[in-house]
User: Which sequence fits this backbone?
């Protein structure tokens, strides 16, 4: 990995020690999943669920798809209806599971006293687009339709996620607008994967990492978009898959967007925020200096990570009108 003088010293060791993930073939993808699973199992073993109720519910899948499991987290003893964050985990569309994201979801429940609907969407390449997005949209529709039963305030639904989960969140929000479906109060995007084309200064500058490399990005988009995908010049790519390809961003909900300085996705993130503003969508953009893709998760104790996490929680508090009188 290239050395970056601008990197926060608290983050450097984690960046240097992160293994290269070769997902080019079936064996490489299997090995990457095993490595991620091993790491996540150790992390999950350290999670405390004190004061948090966890219920697994099943949303009907769209079309012939199977049911979509949702891990519904709520603060113990807090009466509803509660605002809710529909949470979508990262992992490049090919790795990870919902519970991995509960390092953040648990903070949301405890700090804000709201519910989190943490979605177990299917992964590529076994299920390429639109399957994962269908799962996220089915979960959104279920949470809205069953809000009374689930103890959720259907007027205060946020959709958000990190990395690939952020891209899925943006695609879900676009689809909800276009289909006139669930009204979404807030969009929450952390280093979102928004564009398969990878043609920005940051994508070129940080092609060798930290963490996310250009080769890894190319492979995950190929796997997510499926065998018919011909590359960045493919004009058939749906904006629900790569939201940066959307030509119209008007009518979307207020948005909080996080960009990391040393991230290949940085410029895509900033450009998307600017385009939202130009479409008269209210946007709060935070670009964190010295950070890299996933640094908030990998080095949660770093001061930069603590600042970023506090900003995310405060943004959700404002976006879902918590501690204020909701209309």
Assistant:
């Amino acid at each position: 990995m290239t050395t970056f003088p601008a990197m926060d010293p608290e983050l450097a060791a984690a960046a240097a020690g992160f293994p290269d993930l070769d997902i080019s073939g079936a064996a490489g993808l299997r090995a990457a999943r095993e490595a991620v699973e091993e790491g996540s199992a150790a992390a999950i073993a350290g999670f405390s669920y004190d004061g948090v109720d966890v219920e697994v519910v099943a949303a009907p899948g769209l079309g012939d798809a199977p049911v979509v499991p949702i891990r519904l987290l709520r603060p113990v003893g807090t009466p509803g209806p509660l605002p809710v964050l529909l949470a979508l985990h990262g992992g490049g569309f090919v790795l990870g599971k919902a519970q991995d994201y509960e390092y953040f979801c648990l903070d949301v429940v405890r700090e804000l006293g709201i519910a989190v609907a943490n979605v177990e969407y299917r992964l590529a390449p076994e299920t390429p687009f639109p399957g994962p997005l269908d799962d996220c949209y089915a979960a959104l529709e279920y949470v809205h339709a069953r809000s009374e039963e689930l103890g959720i305030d259907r007027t205060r639904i946020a959709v958000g996620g990190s990395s690939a989960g952020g891209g899925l969140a943006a695609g879900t929000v676009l689809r909800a607008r276009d289909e006139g479906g669930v009204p979404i109060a807030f969009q929450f995007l952390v280093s979102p994967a928004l564009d398969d084309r990878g043609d920005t200064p940051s994508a070129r500058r940080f092609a060798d990492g930290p963490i996310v490399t250009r080769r890894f990005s190319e492979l995950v988009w190929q796997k997510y978009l499926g065998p018919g995908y011909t590359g960045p010049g493919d004009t058939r790519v749906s904006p629900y898959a790569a939201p940066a390809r959307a030509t119209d961003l008007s009518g979307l909900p207020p948005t909080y967007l996080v960009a990391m300085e040393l991230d290949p996705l940085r410029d895509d993130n900033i450009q998307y925020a600017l385009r939202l503003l130009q479409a008269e969508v209210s946007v709060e953009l935070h670009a964190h200096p010295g950070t890299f893709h996933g640094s908030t998760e990998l080095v949660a104790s770093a001061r930069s990570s603590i600042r970023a996490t506090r900003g995310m929680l405060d943004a959700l508090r404002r976006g879902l009108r918590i501690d204020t009188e909701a209309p």
In short: Strands lie at 52-59, 68-75, 82-88, 115-119, 152-162, 186-190, 255-260, 283-288. The CA atoms of residues 97 and 120 lie 6 Å apart. The chain has one domain: 9-319.
